[in-house]
Each structure stands twice: as structure tokens, then as C-alpha cells.
Design a protein that fits this description.
This protein has two domains: 349 residues, Outer membrane efflux proteins (OEP) (Up-down Bundle); 78 residues, Single Sheet (Outer membrane efflux proteins (OEP)). The chain starts with a strand and ends in a 6-residue tail after the last helix. The chain contains nine helices and ten strands. Helices cover 63% and strands 15% of the residues. The protein is α+β, with helices and mostly antiparallel strands and 442 residues long.
């Protein structure tokens, strides 16, 4: 099983040594941030994810509201009325029957209870599936945000590595200047050699300033994504990601891995839930042709008499509602839901094929980037060896200063290429794991 590292041991050591010097002016290190730390902070505070969770809360509220169609409704009303005159019927041998008092009080309590609503049950399933689709879409949005966070995290790590290479180039160039001055004092070289060495030092210092600026921009972008205020420095393990056919995080080419990815990918689950919601909505519109049955009741209390000499009354009953003609609204909605279901299922098939391609391409991409990293590691070793050999030859008078400066430039270029290879491999691995549904994981 092959492994790749984002920063080498020597680079990590240099980063630790430069933490209090090279970075002290602009980004004092008070916290070492791992990738897991960055992802946790993004989950908690990223504004995009806060908005997505609010959207999920809205979907849950819609589900709760939809269920109310199956629950009874109870109403109560109290009323006071001042009449201009009282009216009553005299009854021989009995008290008068007061029909209208001066101060009239009425209280009414009523309820309605759905008993049979055929269209409601598939409609509720449609709403439940819509909420499920929203939840999966929120997970998909979270995965996209965290993928961006991981990319920014590795970009910050590579920015550190490039800055270390630039700082190392300054030290090498400064040593070359001192050597040129010494040889010039001894009459071994001309003033041109000194000027050329000083020019190379200026270029190295400018390159370091540009790398420092790029690092600050990268760190600022990462801080915005994870909403962290305190200064920090990313910390990447020496063997952060394992890749290869034997590793569980990287799928093999068997068909079962595609099935596993489809189960893990929230985008695919969202499309499945949406298709089921639209199918239930179609059935709900078909059931709207059936009649609905509901029960009702009310009770009244008042401070005057009715013709039964009571000061209360109640009623209870059932009601059948049947919409016979609606100008084709139900059929239109049913056909619309069926067409939407067909579209969603087709989009799910497109996503299935895309995920399959992403898995195949991702595996090849990781393999290619591993080989590229190994190539650049070898190139850095050769470039470093070349610098040492040319320096010895230059001091012995067997090589020109141009040869030495060119070797130094080649070393810096190789180190920067290796840093880019680290980043490319990290992103390729993240892309493959995201395609397989294993990143970021839940």
C-alpha cells in the first residue's frame, strides 16, 4: 500500500523553526490546527452551513404543518351583547321565559374532526419525503463546504512549504554572496560575480515576500471558511492520507463500490427521496377524486332561555364532502407530479453514471499524482545534490557562477514543484473520497 505525505520531515522541522521568526510579524502562532479541527469549526460556524440548517428547520416545520389536516380543530367564542330592551314570555304558574336579556352573554365551543381523507395520506408521505430530500441536500451542501475547507487547509500547508523553500533559497543565496565577496577580495573573481550573486539574493528575497503574501491570503480564506479569529497554523501529519487498492478509503474497480458510493452520497439519496415524494404527490392528486368524511360538534351556553327552557344546547354530526368538478385541476396536478417524478429519476440515473466515472477517474488520478510526487521528490534530491556538486566545482574554479546560480534556481523550482505535487495529491485523494461518499464522513 502506497502512502503520500503532504510535508516532509525536513520541511516540518523548518516550519517549526520558522514559526517564531518568519511568521512572527504577520501570523503569530497560537494554535496548531489539524484538518479535523478545521472541519469541526466549519461544521459549527460556517455561515453557509448555518443557512442550510435553517432551511432544514423550515422543511421540518412544513411537515408538522402538513400533519394538522388529520387532527381535530377546536374553536371557542365568548360574546357580550347589550340589548336596548329585555323580552320574555310570561308562563302561568311558572317563571317568565327570558328570550332576550338586557345584558346578553353567549359562549360557543365547537370542533371538527377529519374522519376519512383519502388524499391526505399519500400527501403526508410526499411531505415527509420532501423533508428527507431537503435533509440530504443539506448534507450535500455541507460536504461541498467541507471539501472547500479541506482544499483551503492543504493550500495553506503548501503555502507554508513554499515559504520554507523560499526562505531556504535566501540562505543559500546569501551564502553565495558571501562566497563571491571573499573570492573577489582574493582576486579570484570579478565584480560582476558579486553583483550577479547579489541580484540572485534580491530575487530570492522578493520571491519570499510574494510567498508570504500568498500564504497570508490562503490563511485568510481558510479563517473565513471556519470562522476562527485567533492566529493559527495548519498542522499536517507526515502520512496524512493512505491511497491504493488495499486501503478501505479508496474503492476498487468492482461494481459493489459504486453501489456503496450511491448509498453514501447524499446527492443521490436526495434525488431518490424527491422521486418518492413526487410519486406520492401523484397518488395524492389521484385520490382527490374520492369524497372526504368529517365529524363536527358544538356546544352553546348563554344567560337566557331557549324554547326548551334550557340555557345550553349542543349538536354533533358527520359531513360528507365530494368535489365533483374542478375544471381538471386534479388531473393536471397528477400529470405534473408524474412528469416531475420521471425527470428526477432520470437525473438520478445521470448522477449514477457520473459517480461511476468519478470513481474510475479518481483512482487513476490518485495513482498518477502519487507517481508525480515520487518524481518530484527524486528531482529535489537530484537538484540538491547538483547544487552541492556545482558549489564544490565553483570553489575549485571548475564551474562558473552562472552554473551555481542556475543550480540554485533549479533547486527552488523543484521544491516548489514538489509542494504543488503534495497539494495535487491531497486534492486528488479528497476528490476520490468525496466521490466514494467517505469524505467528510458522519
Amino acid at each position: 500500500m502506497k502512502r503520500f505525505v503532504v510535508t516532509s520531515t525536513s520541511t516540518a522541522a523548518l516550519l517549526l523553526g520558522l514559526a517564531g521568526t518568519a511568521f512572527a510579524d504577520n501570523a503569530p502562532v497560537t494554535r496548531r490546527l489539524t484538518l479535523d479541527d478545521a472541519l469541526a469549526l466549519a461544521r459549527k460556524s460556517n455561515h453557509s452551513l448555518v443557512a442550510e440548517r435553517a432551511r432544514l428547520d423550515q422543511a421540518k416545520a412544513i411537515v408538522d404543518r402538513a400533519w394538522t389536516v388529520l387532527f381535530p380543530t377546536i374553536t371557542a367564542q365568548g360574546k357580550y351583547q347589550r340589548n336596548n330592551t329585555a323580552f320574555s314570555f310570561p308562563r302561568p304558574g311558572l317563571s317568565d321565559l327570558t328570550i332576550q336579556p338586557i345584558d346578553q352573554l353567549d359562549a360557543v365551543v365547537g370542533f371538527t374532526m377529519p374522519l376519512l381523507v383519502p388524499a391526505a395520506y399519500p400527501g403526508l408521505k410526499a411531505v415527509d419525503k420532501t423533508e428527507e430530500a431537503t435533509r440530504e441536500n443539506v448534507h450535500a451542501a455541507e460536504d461541498a463546504v467541507l471539501f472547500g475547507v479541506a482544499q483551503s487547509f492543504y493550500a495553506a500547508a503548501i503555502a507554508d512549504e513554499v515559504l520554507v523553500a523560499r526562505q531556504s533559497s535566501i540562505e543559500v543565496s546569501r551564502a553565495t554572496v558571501e562566497n563571491a565577496k571573499t573570492r573577489f577580495s582574493a582576486g579570484a573573481v570579478t565584480k560582476v560575480d558579486v553583483d550577479r550573486a547579489q541580484l540572485a539574493l534580491l530575487r530570492a528575497e522578493q520571491g519570499a515576500r510574494e510567498s508570504q503574501l500568498a500564504r497570508e491570503e490562503t490563511y485568510r480564506a481558510l479563517a473565513r471558511l471556519i470562522q476562527i479569529e485567533q492566529p493559527f497554523q495548519v498542522s499536517v501529519p507526515l502520512a496524512s492520507v493512505a491511497a491504493g487498492a488495499g486501503d478501505k478509503s479508496v474503492p476498487s474497480s468492482s461494481g459493489g463500490d459504486l453501489a456503496s458510493a450511491l448509498r453514501l452520497r447524499p446527492e443521490f439519496r436526495a434525488l431518490q427521496a424527491a422521486a418518492e415524494s413526487e410519486e406520492a404527490e401523484r397518488r395524492s392528486n389521484a385520490w382527490r377524486w374520492a369524497p372526504g368524511l368529517s365529524g363536527f360538534g358544538n356546544a352553546r351556553f348563554f344567560n337566557y332561555d331557549n324554547f326548551h327552557s334550557d340555557r345550553h344546547s349542543w349538536a354533533i354530526g358527520a359531513q360528507l364532502d365530494w368535489l365533483i368538478y374542478d375544471a381538471g385541476v386534479r388531473d393536471t396536478n397528477r400529470r405534473l407530479a408524474a412528469a416531475q417524478e420521471a425527470e428526477t429519476r432520470a437525473r438520478a440515473e445521470v448522477l449514477r453514471e457520473t459517480i461511476g466515472d468519478d470513481l474510475a477517474n479518481g483512482r487513476r488520478q490518485v495513482e498518477t499524482k502519487i507517481a508525480a510526487q515520487e518524481t518530484f521528490e527524486h528531482s529535489v534530491a537530484l537538484a540538491r545534490e547538483t547544487v552541492e556538486l556545482v558549489r564544490i566545482q565553483y570553489e575549485a574554479g571548475q564551474a562558473t557562477q552562472i552554473d551555481l546560480l542556475t543550480a540554485q534556481d533549479n533547486l527552488v523550482a523543484a521544491q516548489e514543484a514538489l509542494a504543488q505535487a503534495h497539494f495535487d495529491l491531497a486534492v486528488a485523494d479528497l476528490t476520490l473520497r468525496r466521490a466514494a461518499g467517505t469524505f467528510p464522513g458522519r
